[in-house]
Amino acid sequence: MDYGPAQESDILAREWIKSHGPKFRQFVNGKWVAPKAKKYLISREPSTGRKLASIPLSGKQDINHAVRSAHEAFDNWKKLSCHVRARYLYAMARQIQKNARLFAVLEALDNGKTIRETRDIDIPLVARHFYHHAGWAQVRDSALQGYEPLGVIGQIIPWNFPMLMLAWKIAPALAMGNTVVLKPAEYTSLTALLFAEICEQINLPPGVVNIVTGDGSTGAELVKHRDISKIAFTGSTEVGRKICQVTADSEKRLSLELGGKSPFIVFDDADLDGVVEGIVDAIWFNQGQVCCAGSRLLVQESITNKLYRKIKNRMEKLRVGHSLDKGVDIGAIVAPVQLKTIESLVSKGLDEGADMWQPSWTCPKEGWYYPPTLFTNVAPASLIAQEEIFGPVLIAMSFRTPSEAVKLANNTRYGLAASIWTENINLALDIAPKVKAGSVWVNCTNVFDAASGFGGYRESGFGREGGIEGLYEYVRFGIEKDFLPAPTVLSPLNKSKGVGNVNQVPGIDRTAKMYMGGKQKRPDGGYNMPVFNASGDLAGQVGLGNRKDIRNAVEAAHAAEGWSTTAAHIRAQVLYFVGENLEARAAEFAGRLSDLLGQTKRRSLREVNMTLERIFTYAAYADKYEGTIHDTPYRNVTLAMKEPLGVMGIVCPEEAPLLGFVSAVLPPIAMGNTVVAVPSSTFPLLATDLYQVLDTSDVPPGVVNIVTGDKDLLADVLSDHDDVDGLWYFGSREGSTRIRYSSAANMKRTWVNFGRNPDWFDPAQTKPDYFLHKAVQIKNIWIPYGE
Ligand code: NAD
Ligand code: MN
User: Fold this and answer.
1) With CB atoms counted within 10 Å of each terminal CB, which end of the chain scores lower, N or C?
2) Whole-angstrom Cα distance, residue 497 to residue 541?
3) 559 CA to middle of ligand 1, Å?
4) Per-residue pLDDT at 350
């Protein structure tokens, strides 16, 4: 039996397009304006390939105008009461709901995705996002005490969920008191322009939301603009990396939501009929053009044949066709270039020798379609197993044991999402913490909600959207304004003797060694550097670390990653013990500080005592900086777990050589990271004294590794290192830029200070959650719960 078409009416949507004249204008400062250079792009209907509308190809002048408007609007918008901002967001949600049908049809026309999805998923989630964030706007001041809006936010979104991505960007930004300039994707700008109309209808103050259309060149202008405080981007890893590099020398904040190659793991006890429907949602939802698509199917070996057979049966019954046909499962691919990418990756998969299967029916000839496709017999290292295809192509591999499944799942440079299918709750919750991904779905897939954070691990980018964790992307810690210029080399005496550009002297035996894997190590190059005290006398020597020393230290830190699964209570006990053992040697440390810094004993004792207090603080937080449970709908709850980043490089401040070192190194350790620390170049001896304390305090070998030497040189090596997951740098402005630039290679999480440090003695400026927040990444685990 064949189905006839059941076409959703497009009359309203086409009338709306017509009402905007032959050419759309952009929405800037509350007005509709033509692009200065009078250039236009054509948006097409992927279902037919026909022209849908002309939209502005905006350029530099248009971006300047939009950013200026957003700036002018910011002053008033941030001063409004939380309640007033909440009302605007609420009004947006209401208007979106009232116009839901128009939004759904327009989105389906412009993007090629099915009306079933836009009507039942995209647009309802958009409304939900605005409602949820109207709530966050209302309670901002109490929920995020001490935080302030950033300013003007530049937002760049992709074409795969045009309106949903707009909501994910605009709702939290406005709720926190920022104003925005948003650039939709070139293929799909129409729903963003319809949203602009809603901003008009609700009398949103001019300039709070500006919608500027265009292509990559328009986006690049926005990224470059000096008066933008932050770029929020969703799109390809390639462009994300470019954005990191272009903004490296500015203090612009970034959140990047990039590509993925997410595993869909099926154990032999899973409910296979549920699994098959899950696979349909994982890889054929939105034609597979989903950043978190479950594009790598990992199946336990004993059930492969049975499952592949079931999948093929289901594929045979899927219907591909016009996006407005209500009976269609899979719509059109967004653009011919995307279709070519899919075709070329599929042909590479065939060249690589994998087995391809497609249903017997053919796709419509008019429009841009690709049939659902399954690859089996795929080698884990092959191109189609590693590259994001961003189309309806599933590749399948098998595993024998749960640990093999985890290995395969993590065999990717991405880490956006994973789904786990098994009827065994013990197994599911054993695997969930081991998979490196920002979202983990247990017996479900591709579920989203405004209350839950979403975002990547590794090269899938950083930052979260949704939930309370997403709000932190749009605020700054107010007290940052009080941070002081950070000295690069402390004592003028030291400088005069050349420590600033480190002297190389041959090693003698009475040199403080470096510390790696719990052992004292001589520097690989055999060179040492002198350390002078305040009177200019030689106080000792430390090793002059090089590239090889950093590599060894990183290796030692990796070997110690068991620390991340050590019970938080045990981590706390170890840190308390560090405090206890430091206290026993307080006088000695104070003496060292006095000698080196030429300060009174009293002042030095104060630093030691502050250090002890700080150690206690982070020991306390080791088991108290907890995750959250998000109240997400659809028969689940979502565990927002704070997980360590992995191996972190910590380049410590020059000033307060003991307190600064401990304040920088302890938060990551308390959260389960392992660390390669580069202490103050001027006074590294405090750090090398401290490892004796670590040694006697049961800190497992490799958890803290210390490499002394030229701080900036070592920082550069750390930022180039692919196996370093996060890097904190308390040094110069130039160093901060270099680190941001080179960390883009593997999307390291960086925290740099641009030459300004907190006052380490001030509890307000060293608020623990400010530091702890940067030492973790949040994994949202969706588990079945209730009815
Ligand atoms: P893209 O990264 O090129 O485009 C995303 C957005 O960035 C668009 O608005 C685009 O105009 C803009 N842009 C492009 N170059 C820019 C630049 N230099 N500076 C600033 N903005 C720029 O992605 P695409 O070309 O649309 O798709 C290419 C691939 O990206 C896809 O095949 C897929 O793998 C991936 N992708 C991922 C997502 C996701 O949600 N993570 C979404 C879309 C595409
Ligand atoms: Mn289009």
Assistant:
1) N
2) 14
3) 36
4) 98
Residues whose Cβ atom is located within 5 A of ion ligand 2? 43, 110, 187
Angstrom distance (rounded) from CA 668 to CA 650: 9
Question: For residue 339, what are the contacts with CB-CB under 8 A and spacing of at least 6?
Answer: 333, 368, 370, 391
Q: Which atom of ligand 1 is least distant from the CA of 238?
A: 2
739 Cβ below 6 A of ligand 1: no
Contacts for 381 with CB less than 8 Å, ≥ 6 apart:
none
Q: State in Å, rounded, how far the first CA of the chain is from the last one.
A: 36
Write the DSSP string, 313-329: HHHHH--B--TTBTT-S
Contact yes or no for 343/335 (Cβ under 8 A)? no
Q: Is 473 a catalytic residue?
A: no
From CA 183, how far away is CA 186, in angstroms rounded? 9
Tally Cβ neighbours within 10 Å of residue 51: 10
C-alpha 287/C-alpha 154 separation (Å) is 28
φ and ψ of 383, to 5 deg: -55, -45
Q: What does each C-alpha distance from 626 to 429, 573, 779 come to in angstroms?
A: 18, 17, 12
In whole angstroms, what is the distance from residue 318 CA to residue 307 CA?
A: 17
Please give the helix or strand (H or E) that residue 126 lies within, else none. helix 123-143
Q: Tell me, using a 6 A CB cutoff, whether residue 187 lines ligand 1.
A: no
| CA 109/CA 44 separation, integer angstroms | 8
Q: Are 322 and 47 in contact (CB under 8 A)?
A: yes
From 156, 233, 416, give the residue whose CB has the most ligand 1 atoms within 8 Å, as the site to mutate: 156
Kindly list the averaged pLDDT for each block of 10 residues, start to end, along the chain of length 787: 81 97 96 98 97 98 98 98 98 98 98 98 98 98 96 98 98 98 98 98 98 98 98 97 97 97 98 98 98 98 98 98 97 98 98 98 97 97 98 98 98 98 98 98 97 97 97 96 81 42 49 95 93 88 96 98 97 98 97 93 97 98 97 91 98 96 98 97 93 95 97 96 97 96 95 96 95 98 93
Q: Is 652 a catalytic residue?
A: no
| Burial readout 649-661 (b: 16 or more C-beta within 10 A, e: otherwise) | bbbbbbbbbbbbb
Q: What's the longest Cα–Cα distance across the chain?
A: 94
How much is the pLDDT for 537? Answer: 87
Nearest CA to ligand 1 atom 44: 235
Cα separations in angstroms, 614 against 92, 599, 660, 686 = 45, 21, 10, 16
The CB of 258 under 6 Å from ligand 1? The reply is yes
pTM over 0.90: yes
Question: In whole angstroms, what is the distance from residue 750 CA to residue 740 CA?
Answer: 7
Say if CB 99 and CB 194 are below 8 A apart. Answer: yes
Residue tagged active-site, from 291, 363, 444, 652 = 291
pLDDT for res 536: 85
The CA distance from 150 to 56, in Å, is: 28
Q: Is 757 in the pocket of ligand 1 (CB under 6 A)?
A: no
156 lines ligand 1 (CB under 6 A): yes
Asked if residue 239 has its Cβ within 6 Å of ligand 1, the reply is: yes
Residue-wise DSSP of 69-105: HHHHHHHHHHHS-HHHHHHHHHHHHHHHHHTHHHHHH
Q: What is the CB neighbour count within 10 angstroms for residue 637?
A: 17
